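Look over both lines:
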Amino acid sequence: MRDLLLGVLVTVIWGSNFSVIEVGLRDLDPFLLTALRFLMTALPLIFFFRRPANVPLAAVAGYGILFGVGLWFVVNLAMSQGMSPGLSSLVLQFAVFFTLLLSALVFDERIHRPQVVGMVLAVGGLLLVIGYTQGAATVRGALLVLLAALSWSVCNLLVKRYKPADMLAFIVWSSAFAAPALLLLTAWVRGAAPFVALGHGVTLAAVGSILFQAYVTTIFGYSVWNTLMKTYPAATVAPLSLLVPVSGIATSWLVFDEHFAPGVWGGVGVMLCGVVVFVLAPRWGRRVR
């Protein structure tokens, strides 16, 4: 129960993170904001943590590149191509199903019938929310977010494969590989302009956004999430991330007074029912037997 509550807490944090990103984007270029997030995740903590001894350096670097560039850089690129933040957060949750399918193929993990029922409900709710959410989306942007979702699922598999003993050290060291790559990509895509603007100063709101993303969302959130992912089957953990868009929509409503169509709230309700069925149905089945 404690691990379940921690998993739900992380999804609430991740959902609210999109509103925090929105605050940071008011003052910083989206690509530079992502690069600074991982730079602050790595520094100065990397000087206090040894590299995870049980994980090959190539795996640490691969996770960092996939997580920083394959996931978050690609999501920001998709948003620059026309995907709204809300739709990006929703489409990104298809990583759940990529993770389950890849885990079944690579690790031969079983997906039980009650879990399938819960997944079908959650996917139905997710599609309902996407259908009723107002916002621009392009085919290219949607494909980019699906690519980001695939990158996230591969990150999950790397954690399950190597099971880092010190998850905090793993997150810090992998971020040390993500930050330089993101800085180079920012310079390649945007040129010198974002760095010149940064030299003119940054607001307290932007600093707060960077620190929240680095220390709360990344260090705390992904340390907890990856610990759950290496401990339990993917089919037990991954569907909890379907709560992220629920939290994101609720946070946008509370913080920015963003209003949504009734169909969106209906979809949120269906998603919640799906997650509840997914989590509790196996326990009910065991009690019946």
Remarks:
- The chain has a mean pLDDT of 81.
- Residues 2-111+136-249 form one domain.
- The chain has one domain: 2-111+136-249.
- The two ends are 21 Å apart (CA to CA).
